[in-house]
Write a structure and sequence with these properties.
The complex is a heterotrimer of chains A (367), B (290) and C (258).
Chain A: H1 2-6, H2 10-25, H3 35-41, H4 43-53, H5 58-67, H6 72-84, E1 101-106, H7 132-135, H8 157-163, H9 193-202, H10 205-216, E2 225-238, E3 247-264, E4 272-281, H11 285-298, H12 314-320, H13 323-331, H14 338-366
Chain B: H1 11-26, E1 32-33, H2 47-56, E2 62-67, H3 74-86, E3 90-91, E4 100-104, E5 117-121, H4 135-143, H5 148-161, E6 172-174, E7 178-180, H6 190-193, E8 199-204, E9 209-213, E10 219-221, E11 248-252, E12 259-263, H7 266-274, H8 286-289
Helix pairs in contact in B: 1-2
Chain C: E1 7-16, E2 19-29, E3 34-38, H1 45-52, E4 60-66, E5 72-74, H2 80-87, E6 91-94, H3 108-118, H4 124-137, H5 154-166, E7 172-176, H6 184-201, E8 204-209, H7 212-218, E9 221-226, E10 229-235, H8 236-241, H9 246-257
Parallel strand pairs in C: 3-8, 3-9, 6-7, 7-8
Antiparallel strand pairs in C: 1-2, 1-4, 4-5, 9-10
Classes of the chains: A alpha+beta (367), B alpha/beta (290), C alpha/beta (258).
Chain lengths: 367, 290, 258
């Protein structure tokens, strides 16, 4: 009977899952992907899943990419759901990006600078021509040329500018106040900058790209320069209470972006450049840059700027940057809503009956 | 299930949620922010309700899960399985047997008892969200009980349509103090919330809010003295059990406009059929449905 | 005057950075009286309005308000809920731009009725009747009760804002350049309307205006402000016909020349 057909049922779910497993595997004649292959050859996908899944574990992220058939948001969701179940042993000390093992470091504000410009593995100056050589499984590429590191120190551009007091400082952390943690405490407004940056670091790359882009097109613009982008490995340290000193528990790959923005000053305070900051797990320059632009836009109240653009609206940005929340709520529209729809049907029928009765009465009165 | 705690969430998290629940019960209708966790089901699919259920569920409980009033809708099945798998509790489709009922979009037809808890899945806990998008501002409006704007909305509906045109998620005033979203239940179900003997808990996972109505609390649907709140249902009888007072689903049976009206509460319908009540069992033609 | 004041301020001072916005300002307002605060832009008159109405806080000084039961309240010490309740019952605020106050996507009737609903009125028929009555009082065709404000002219919007504000019969209304931005002919009609409503309903008004002609037409008394200070105060005719302070003389003469 038709009635049963519209209801779901256990069998339907089981069958759907079985079909999904088959669909995920694809043609069994084609060799199955290994997690090592995903981790090594789809590194940018793995990085994005770690950043938006907010869990640094390339192996699990590769598994999530495989399980989600390459659907990045679905994969990030898998990682997030796993992350909630993990116990929290402690908090790391602040990562020192000045001590980063640099793979790539560029600055757009200086022609040259201590430590030099290091292009590293970038798509920036590639010609976007499909490389048909890659379609044929070939030999590994010839190794890239090696060179000795000439200058071991790579000071951050913000520290260089800071030397002349030309840019605002990092600010001192308030020792009395732990940084906020969105994964434990719900958002509250006004949201402090630590919480805002955490939300952006977990946020959707596409959303941050669009919001950052909108600031460049005049919606909350703040005339940015890329002070510096650096990508590389940073060690993570924790201080176990039993030891009382920091120990290194491993390395993470980070992308950091320091945007240098229009200067601000007043009669009493000489002008200084202001900053927007982006920090993302993995190699993710586009997202780090978008994050830095949006971070700066959301700081309008510190600089007495008129907040009238979407990227400056802290509530708007923070409530809509999380793609796991967004995808869940958008896709929940697929769930049955027929009870609500039925009540709308009854209301609209009643309104139409009344409208028809009214027009009939008016017609009668006119005649 | 191996590797996971009873009912999935760790005990610390459940304790945090229970603290939020206690606060919510103490201030009926007030939205309490809580540290909503990522769940293995998507946001918007019942994560708030699942976290609340997980926090109040004990090994001796019997769980019923409904979606659109039915126990066998896919999402209800999925959530019931989740708890069967992670908590190993008994599950039922019988409203009478259940100690905890998690629901999306309906309140069972059968009156609930003092020894039962109903947990609502809530997509949008803020009743003022369509009038004021900023949560900082709506919090202020609740704190000051500034609800004039909601009545303006009702006024506008009456002016335009002759009656209030909200058919589900119809706002209610709880304990004469807090304006509350009852979740997208049809307005038909609103009167059941008033002075209900069972504890009513509401979980909104994505929006990270919990709220509650303690047993025997005054819950009024907003209205005007001269335009009192009234409920709507399809003016037919259930084709399967003949009920003329239950909320009905409309099932399209062909492409000629024929349909069938059946109880949305499947347990209610089956119980009635077992008691010997019958309907016509036949679809009706288009004209009769309108 | 023997009657007790409705609103009294003593020693109000406020600085924005180094700029003095208010310097030791005293003000008194009696029931049913219209007090005009005049001065050029930057003189502190709008700041004074915002401080008197509790919308912003002064650095020092106090503002007292006497409620209908004759109890005195320190406006800036009132809890936020009480102040907001006051603002939607016994007080009113008429903005220069009516769009800052009106709900543009709500019908004229809904706009007028909102304060009644906020005050707990739950009878649709009575609310609608009051709205229709008020539209007539502000000379808007009652047949337009269900129309959206966006279909109204600038002068009508301002009259709608006044109806929306007066519907709860406030005893005290703050007005910020209520005729600013309107054509001269529209202004004259609006001024006549405000004058007759205020007199008939015995409403006290603090009126901020840069336009001495508006002050002369509406106000019983006048306060002249310059750089945050009250330089002259007195009965309107007296001050405008025989200004004592050099700045007032300048203001009056520049109007005459214009």
């Amino acid at each position: 009977m038709a009635y049963v057909a519209v209801k779901g049922g256990e069998r339907a779910i089981d069958n759907a899952h079985a079909w999904l497993a088959e669909d995920r595997r694809g043609d069994p004649a084609v060799p199955e992907l290994s997690l090592a292959q995903i981790q090594e050859q789809l590194g940018r996908s793995v990085d994005r899943v770690m950043a938006e899944g907010s869990l640094y574990d390339p192996h699990l992220a590769a598994l999530a990419v495989k399980q989600a058939q390459g659907d990045i948001i679905e994969a990030a969701f898998l990682l997030r759901a796993y992350r909630t179940t993990l116990p929290r042993f402690g908090y790391a000390t602040p990562a020192d990006t000045a001590a980063m093992q640099i793979r790539r470091r560029i600055s757009a504000v200086y022609k040259d600078l201590p430590g030099g410009q290091v292009l590293g593995p970038t798509y920036d100056y590639t010609h976007r021509l499909l490389d048909f050589m890659l379609a044929a499984e070939g030999k590994p590429p010839a190794p890239a040329p090696l060179a000795e590191a000439t200058e071991p120190t790579m000071p951050r551009v913000s520290d260089i500018l800071r030397g002349e007091d030309l840019i605002e400082g990092d600010g001192e952390p308030n020792p009395a106040q732990e940084p906020g943690d969105l994964t434990r405490e719900p958002l509250a407004f006004p949201a402090s900058r630590d919480v805002r940056l955490q939300a952006l670091a977990r946020g959707d790359e596409g959303f941050l790209l669009a919001m950052g882009y909108s600031t460049q097109r005049g919606y909350g613009g703040n005339h940015p320069f890329v002070g510096e982008i650096r990508v590389g490995e940073v060690s993570v340290e924790i201080v176990p209470p039993e030891l009382g000193f920091a120990i290194d528990i491993g390395d993470v790959t980070l992308t950091e972006c320091q945007m240098v923005n229009q200067f601000k000053g007043s009669k009493t305070k000489p002008p200084q450049f202001t900053r927007g900051y982006g920090l993302v797990f993995g190699h993710a320059e586009r997202k780090a840059m978008g994050m830095a632009l949006v971070d700066r836009a959301m700081r309008h109240d510190e600089f007495a700027e008129e907040p009238n653009a979407p990227a400056q609206n802290v509530e708007f940005v923070l409530y809509h940057s999380d793609n796991i929340e967004g995808t869940g709520f958008v896709e929940h529209l697929k769930l049955p809503h027929y009870v609500d729809f039925q009540s709308e049907l009854e209301t609209i029928r009643r309104m139409r009956r009344e409208a028809e009765a009214n027009s009939a009465a008016m017609k009668e009165a006119a005649e | 299930m191996n590797g996971y705690n009873f009912a999935y969430l760790d005990e610390q998290t459940k304790r945090m949620i229970r603290r939020a629940l206690l606060k919510a019960v103490a201030i009926p209708g007030h939205q309490v922010p809580f540290g909503s966790r990522e769940m293995p089901l998507p946001y918007g699919w019942g994560t708030g309700g699942i976290q609340v259920t997980a926090s109040v569920l004990g090994a001796a409980d019997t769980l019923k899960v409904i979606d659109q009033g039915a126990d066998d809708t896919t999402n209800a099945v999925s959530i019931r399985r989740f708890f069967a798998r992670t908590a190993g509790v008994a599950t039922t489709t019988d409203t009478n047997e259940a100690t905890i009922i998690q629901t999306r979009h309906r309140i069972p037809e059968k009156a609930l008892r003092e020894d039962q808890i109903i947990v609502y899945q809530v997509p949008q806990p803020e009743p003022l969200s369509k009038l004021e998008p900023s949560r900082a501002e709506t919090r202020r409006m609740h704190a000051l009980a500034e609800y004039g704007s909601m009545h303006v909305r009702l006024y506008e509906d009456i002016t335009r349509f002759g009656h209030v045109a909200i058919s589900y998620d119809y706002p209610v005033m709880v304990n004469h103090r807090y304006l509350m979203a009852p979740s997208p239940i049809p307005a038909f179900d609103n009167p059941k919330m008033h002075m209900m003997p069972a504890l009513q808990l509401f979980g909104a996972g994505r929006e990270k809010r919990i709220y509650a109505i303690p047993p025997y609390t005054d819950v009024r649907s907003l209205d005007f003295d001269d335009h009192p709140f009234r409920t709507t249902r399809a003016p037919q009888c259930c084709a399967l059990c003949g009920a003329d007072d239950s909320y009905l689903d409309e099932v399209v049976t062909d492409d000629q406009g024929g349909r069938m009206f059946v109880c949305s509460d499947t347990d209610h319908c089956e119980t009635r059929q077992a008691e010997g009540h019958t309907g016509t069992g036949e679809p009706i033609a288009r004209e009769a449905a309108e | 005057m023997t009657e007790e004041t409705l609103l009294s301020a003593r020693g109000l001072s406020l600085h924005f950075g180094k700029v003095p916005a208010l310097v030791n300002v005293d003000a008194d307002l009696w029931p049913g009286e219209v007090l005009a605060v005049v001065g050029e832009s930057g003189s502190g008159k709008t700041t004074l309005l915002n401080v008197l109405s509790g919308r912003i806080r002064a650095d020092s000084g106090v503002t007292w308000y006497r409620d209908p039961q004759s109890r005195l309240h320190d406006v800036h010490a009132m809890p936020a809920p009480a102040l907001r309740a006051l603002h939607r019952s016994d007080w009113g605020f008429v903005h220069q731009n009516p769009r800052d106050n009106l709900r543009m996507s709500v019908s004229a009737g809904g706009n007028v009725g909102e304060r009644l609903m906020a005050a707990g009125n739950r009878h649709y028929g009575n609310i609608r009747e009051a709205a229709i009555d008020w539209l007539a009082q502000v000379e808007i065709d009652p047949a337009r009760v269900d129309d959206m404000p966006r279909t109204f002219s600038g002068g009508m919007l301002q009259r709608l804002q006044i109806a929306r504000t007066l519907v709860t019969h406030p005893r005290l209304v703050f007005m910020d350049e209520p005729t600013g931005g309107l054509d001269v002919s529209v202004q004259a009609r609006l001024l006549d309307l405000i004058r007759s409503l205020v007199a008939r309903l015995n409403i006290a008004v603090v009126l901020v205006t840069h336009d001495l002609a508006v002050a002369r037409l509406l106000a019983h008394r006048i306060m002249v402000m310059q750089r945050g200070e009250v330089v002259e105060t007195g009965l309107t005719d007296q001050v405008l016909d025989d200004p004592q302070h050099a700045y007032t003389q300048l203001l009056v003469s520049s109007v005459l020349q214009a």
